[in-house]
Specification:
Layout: H1 7-12, E1 21-27, E2 31-37, H2 49-54
Antiparallel strand pairs: 1-2
Amino acid sequence: LYKSTDIYAQDLKDRVLIKTVEDITIFGNYSKTVKARIDTGANQSSIDRVLAKELGFNKYIGKVNVISAN
């Protein structure tokens, strides 16, 4: 992606780069590896209702209306 002579490559050599979609493992009563969208600027996170139930988070499931900038 970057040439070794790029100034950005030197700044990034000690950092961990993540993609916009990563495989992550979520732990609850059970664990499951899923693909997740990464948004480092987000104020909150959410997971699918079906996944929450599979992981045993039944008492935390609710509905929230989210207004997106997109």
